[in-house]
Amino acid sequence: MASSAKSKSSSWLAPLIISCALLACTANGHFLYVGYYDRSCPNAEDIVHFVMASKVATQPAMAPAVLRLFFHDCFINGCDASVLLDSTSHMESDKAAEPNESLAGFDVIDEIKSRLESACPGVVSCADVIALASRDAVSLLGGPAWNVPLGRKDARTANVSAADAYLPSPHANLTELLNKFATHGLDAQDMVALSGAHTVGTARCQNYRARMYGYDGEGNIIDPAFAEARRRTCHAVGGDDAVAPFDEESPLRFDNAYYRDLIARRGLLTSDQALYGCGGPFDNLVRTYSKDGERFARDFATAMVKMGNISPPSDMPVEVRLNCRRINY
């Protein structure tokens, strides 16, 4: 096991080892399992962790950026690194989809892949690079670590229409969110736990403006002072492109503050606040995570493994790309 996945203390803020309940699962007909590269590229996880640690040390915002790449990859035709492909004369990239316009972290993935190609050419897929890098992104910000089942292959094509169709909208209500996650085999608890990724990172004003001005169609479940502060952000710093942190308290610390913000009616996006405020099991789970960081850490790690098992279509051509931005030939 790579050092990046070792448990260092009993505190949830230190990496927490989560064993995959299904050590072998299929993705596009390929078996995923922990230790897939133990013989073919034994230093793979260490290489990923070294690059991620170096980048996050100088650019902490790269951690949530890489984590977001994993979500956006897996929700578009499965975890196949299609989100990394550049457009060509024959293919429009997933990057062209509106939900993907603000994605970042591609250069970090490129550097990891370059080092892996030097160490073990043509072995480690770009899809596995994203899965490992997102795990390290979380642990490097103080969150849990987990064993990552590996063996994914890379898509040879993109699907920009799927990006528009399957990625959850920042304006979605609870029913819409449940449907989006259920499409990928993720249940309500997975959805609430995975939404905790918004304990780090930022969003652009164009994605939270409707909530701050009360015309998102979801009522006025918002702290007035919080709404006013975010409206000032939109006015003062670049309009639609003005960014605000999901969690003002600890925007680059992977903790459970996101859920406390929801209870305080300070969720940044409509889709964030949708998880709390209507009573019932969702409110109960948000309250549980807000009080029990270790429970959140365990459930988040388990849900990340489950999301990482989302398979591409069985008939989709795949390969191990040598360059994550383009197919091999």
UniProtKB/TrEMBL annotation:
One GO MF term attached to the UniProt entry: lactoperoxidase activity
Bound cofactor: record note: Binds 1 heme b (iron(II)-protoporphyrin IX) group per subunit.
EC number: 1.11.1.7
Site positions (Transition state stabilizer): R68
Cofactor: heme b; Ca(2+)
UniProt cross-references to PROSITE patterns, sorted A to Z: PEROXIDASE_1, PEROXIDASE_2, PEROXIDASE_4, PROKAR_LIPOPROTEIN
Location in the cell: Secreted
UniProt keyword terms in alphabetical order: Calcium, Disulfide bond, Heme, Hydrogen peroxide, Iron, Metal-binding, Oxidoreductase, Peroxidase, Pyrrolidone carboxylic acid, Secreted, Signal
Annotated residues for binding of Ca(2+) 1: D73, G78, D80, S82
Pfam families in UniProt: peroxidase
Chain residues that bind Ca(2+) 2: T199, D247, D255
Binding site residues for substrate: P168
Disulfide bonding pattern of the chain: C41-C120, C74-C79, C126-C324, C205-C234
Residues that, per the record, bind heme b: H198
Domain Plant heme peroxidase family profile: start-end pairs: 31-328
Superkingdom classification of source: Eukaryota
Signal sequence, renumbered to the chain: 1-29
EC top class named in words: oxidoreductase
Catalytic residues (UniProt): H72 (proton acceptor)
GO cellular component: extracellular region
Catalysed reaction equations from the record: 2 a phenolic donor + H2O2 = 2 a phenolic radical donor + 2 H2O
Role played: Removal of H(2)O(2), oxidation of toxic reductants, biosynthesis and degradation of lignin, suberization, auxin catabolism, response to environmental stresses such as wounding, pathogen attack and oxidative stress. These functions might be dependent on each isozyme/isoform in each plant tissue.
Entry's family note: Belongs to the peroxidase family. Ascorbate peroxidase subfamily.
Protein name: Peroxidase
